[in-house]
Task: inverse folding
């Protein structure tokens, strides 16, 4: 009887193995779709941005996500939006990014993981966990102008490129 249980358990594990890779691909695909449907209008195809209007994301997300405060900041920007003047690549930008609080925690983790993989990316893949946006979603809302102030503090501290 024990042998039958062991065989069933092994069979279930073997059946699940092929889907593990598909789950990662589905998450990567979800990140692309979320980006295309919510971010690309402003940040452009390939996340190149629009000089003076919308900052580039390619190559920047991986750098920001390499620190814990940076990871939190990225999630908080998606949840709360941001408003005011920022400087990216020595170019001032005066703008408003709306909050995307309606995105699920899975969608936020997927789109940030997707963006972190855009070249030039980190030497090893940076993955956001669904639990990260879920935890920060429980925090009080942050005004979009306060998010810009938080960005400036992180930039002065060297946590943002």
Result:
């Amino acid at each position: 009887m024990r042998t039958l249980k062991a065989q069933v358990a092994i069979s279930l594990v073997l059946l699940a193995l092929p889907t593990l890779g598909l789950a990662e691909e589905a998450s990567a695909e979800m990140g692309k779709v979320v980006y295309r449907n919510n971010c690309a209008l402003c940040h452009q195809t390939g996340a190149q941005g629009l000089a003076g209007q919308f900052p580039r994301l390619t190559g920047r997300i991986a750098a920001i996500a390499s620190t814990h405060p940076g990871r939190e900041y990225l999630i908080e920007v998606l949840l709360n939006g941001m408003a005011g003047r920022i400087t990216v690549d020595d170019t001032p930008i005066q703008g408003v990014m709306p909050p995307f609080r309606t995105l699920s925690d899975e969608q936020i983790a997927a789109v940030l993981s997707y963006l972190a993989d855009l070249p030039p990316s980190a030497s090893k893949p940076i993955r956001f966990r669904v639990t990260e946006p879920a935890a920060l979603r429980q925090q009080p809302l942050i005004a979009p102008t306060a998010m810009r102030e938080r960005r400036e503090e992180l930039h002065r501290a060297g946590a943002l490129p």
